[in-house]
Write a structure and sequence with these properties.
With about 50 residues, the chain is α+β, with helices and mostly antiparallel strands. The protein contains one helix and three strands, in the order E-E-E-H.
């Protein structure tokens, strides 16, 4: 989710074969969520500086 130029929050849901963009209200900001299989957790932490 990202704020647009008007200050509205835009949510991006992307899955194979489907993309949905919608407005919403974030419960939390400053958080990264990565969903997938066979993820390299150590590499993701390195990339995002966690």
């Amino acid at each position: 989710m990202l704020p647009d130029a008007a200050g509205n929050w835009m949510f991006f849901d992307v899955t194979p074969g489907e993309v949905e963009i919608r407005e919403g209200v974030p419960e939390t900001t400053g958080k990264i969520v990565v969903i997938g299989t066979d993820l390299n957790i150590d590499k993701l932490k390195e990339i995002f500086g966690v």
